[in-house]
Design goal:
Layout lengths: L7 E4 L3 H13 L5 E5 L14 E3 L8 H19 L11 E5 L5 H13 L5 E4 L21 E4 L2 H7 L9 E5 L2 E3 L2 H14 L3 E4 L1 E6 L7 E6 L2 E6 L2 E4 L5 H6 L8 E11 L11 E4 L9 H8 L16 E5 L3 E5 L6 E2 L11 H12 L14 E9 L6 E4 L5 E5 L5 H17 L18 H7 L9
Parallel strand pairs: 1-2, 1-13, 2-9, 4-15, 5-6, 13-21
Antiparallel strand pairs: 3-8, 4-7, 6-7, 10-11, 11-12, 14-17, 14-18, 14-19, 15-16, 16-17, 20-21
Helix pairs in contact: 1-5, 1-9, 2-9
């Protein structure tokens, strides 16, 4: 394609849209790239992230692992080029269980991850096994893959803060967290320095005359502006369904509302050097006898005595805060803003995490100054993104990043830029096309897909 004649309009300035603009302008040299968003860049859901990353992905093939490995490569390049302005670490993800029947599952997951390119699986079933902890800072640790620890004394030695009934942990190594805001700003600043324009306004229409994308209509304070385009990228996050319908495309995605809570961990319940921690077991929240009796007597609160799902997870956040997420609902919803207040969320999340980290029980019933925010996970059935062209010439989508938008942003932006510029596509590109749903074999695979890797 002619870079001088192309005009790319990206609808959505979240981290997916910003990454697309960055790769188009900075990496591929396009001169006319415009970001359009009703709000400020990186503000709707991109700033509500857990800010974590991992290359530990289940699935029937290697595509997500390869995609995430590429994205992490690009994130590490940005970290090195900026003196780690993005505060990238590589502490890893630690999945833990008190259920011995889950040990074969963890071992199988580690072997599958190894087969898919995630790094070697290492097993530690004696106290003398050579397990190496992750460094608290930095991201150049050579270890990849995962360590499966089933020796109780080894678990207690390296993870003394975990529940004493923990029988196994899986430590995924190419994982950790970063500053999502700084990652987004690094890309946005570089893109603007290369001439990317930002138009603040609401997309109200897309001209597809003759079966191809030709312009984007934007409303700004009751005034309309038309942006001519040779290529239009829809990267609208929670507004993606509505945006795609403007060009006559129905996307197979759903919205789920997810929250997180941050609170000042003034009593040191979670050590500052801990990795990301994920509890793999269902649980009943740890109420006292008095609390349990009171809840049982209240018909509207009795649900708090029920079984809560696996997957509560959390990590240290800065010098003194702790961040916890507990997706105990997961129903499909229509995105609305501002998000409704979640009922009892801080209490549920903290008590759920205290099952895994008992020292956090010191806060049960008295969560100190909790701050709750959240956003929407836009996801496909199998929890893989949609990146590439759609059946309208010149139109592309970059969406359905579920809870992994930050970690996938760099590879997602690169991939959409390759589609637009005609550059060589990576081997994983077909796995993320909308057209995959037209394949009968793929549709059959969806029926037996299994775990999509969502936390």
């Amino acid at each position: 394609m002619s870079h001088s004649s192309s005009r790319v309009v990206i609808c959505g300035a979240g981290i997916a849209g910003v990454a697309a603009a960055y790769h188009l302008a900075v990496e591929y040299g396009l001169d006319h790239v415009t970001l359009v968003d009703e709000g400020n860049p990186l503000s709707l859901t991109s700033d509500k992230s857990t800010e974590a990353y991992r290359n530990w992905w289940p699935g029937p093939d290697w595509a997500m692992t390869a995609f995430m490995n590429r994205s992490i490569d690009l994130i590490e390049e940005i970290a090195r080029a900026t003196g780690n302005r993005i505060n990238l670490n590589r502490r890893g993800y630690v999945f833990a269980t008190a259920d011995a029947s889950k040990i074969p599952f963890l071992e199988t997951m580690a072997k599958a991850a190894e087969a898919h390119g995630g790094g070697a699986a290492r097993f530690h079933d004696t106290a003398q096994s050579a397990y190496t902890p992750s460094p608290e800072r930095g991201f150049d640790d050579a270890l990849t893959g995962a360590d499966i620890i089933t020796d109780a004394s080894l678990i207690r030695r390296h993870f003394p803060y975990l529940a004493p009934e923990t029988v196994a942990v899986a430590h995924a190594r190419r994982a950790g967290w970063l500053s999502a805001q700084q990652l987004g700003m690094v890309m946005l600043e570089a893109a603007r320095a290369r001439g990317v324009q930002i138009v603040k306004g609401r997309v109200v229409g897309i001209d597809t005359a003759g079966g191809r994308a030709r312009a984007v209509h934007v409303e700004q304070q009751d005034e309309r502006q038309t942006l001519a385009a040779t290529h239009v990228v829809l990267a609208a996050g929670p507004m993606q369904t509505e945006m795609a319908q403007m060009i006559g495309i129905d996307l197979p995605i759903r919205a789920e509302r997810h929250y997180k809570v941050s609170f000042p961990d003034t009593l040191g319940g979670l050590p500052r050097n801990a990795p990301m921690l994920i509890w793999l077991d269902e649980q009943h929240l740890p109420w006292s006898d008095e609390e349990r009796a009171a809840l049982a007597a209240d018909e509207e609160a009795q649900w708090l005595l029920g079984t809560f799902p696996a997957g509560v997870h959390g990590r240290p956040d800065g010098a003194s805060a702790t961040l916890i997420l507990f997706n105990h609902h997961g129903d499909a919803v229509d995105p609305i803003f501002p998000l409704p207040e979640p009922e009892h969320y801080a209490e549920i999340a903290l008590r759920g995490m205290s099952t895994m980290v008992p020292a956090l029980k010191v806060y049960n019933g008295e969560t100190p100054r909790p701050y709750i925010d959240g956003g929407y996970y836009m996801r496909t059935q199998e929890n893989r993104p949609l990146i590439g062209p759609v059946p309208v010439e010149g139109a592309y989508i970059s969406c359905a990043f579920s809870g992994f938008g930050v970690m996938a942003s760099c590879a997602g932006g690169e991939l959409i830029a390759r589609h637009i510029t005609g550059a060589a596509l990576p081997a994983y590109a077909p796995a993320f096309l909308l057209s995959r749903y037209q394949d009968a074999a793929y549709s059959a695979l969806l029926d037996r897909w299994g775990d999509g890797g969502q936390l």
